[in-house]
Specification:
Largest sheet: none
Structural class: mainly alpha
Length: 141
């Protein structure tokens, strides 16, 4: 690596700010925006990527609404044709939202698939929990 001159080191580079959520997002969608943006360096999300991030936040919000509907669904409701049809529709919507989230996350390099080569992912999977220190593991509830 080449050494930098004193003049190059003296140049003050402006600090990039993290992308703020657009005003058109709901409060929940804006919180998703901030949570995603905080996981990456400030220059990761530039204006040309905002539409993808906006779509991701909206899809995540919709996915959570469907998840709440499914969590509140009573199994006894499936004994009627209407209940079974509603359950089927909700699970179809959930599957579509999950695929949309996965696609958008991959395009923005948010998913593990985007971060690991096949070999590195295989190595990480083999090590799993055995390779982590006790303080690195999630606390059990």
């Amino acid at each position: 690596m080449a050494r930098q001159s004193a003049a190059a080191l003296a140049v003050v580079r402006p600090r990039m700010l993290r992308a703020e959520p657009p005003a058109e997002l709901t409060a929940v969608e804006a919180s998703f925006w901030r949570a995603v943006v905080e996981t990456k360096p400030p220059e990761w999300f530039l204006p040309d990527t905002y539409p993808l991030l906006l779509a991701y936040c909206r899809a995540r919000s919709a996915s959570e609404i469907i998840a709440q509907q499914l969590a509140a669904f009573e199994p006894a409701w499936m004994e009627t044709p209407e209940g079974l049809a509603r359950y089927d529709k909700l699970t179809q919507i959930q599957a579509r939202q999950t695929m949309l989230l996965a696609t958008l996350a991959t395009k923005m390099r948010l998913a593990q698939q985007s971060r690991y080569t096949e070999t590195a992912a295989n190595t990480a999977a083999k090590h799993g929990l055995a390779g982590t220190k006790p303080w690195q593991r999630a606390k059990e509830a």
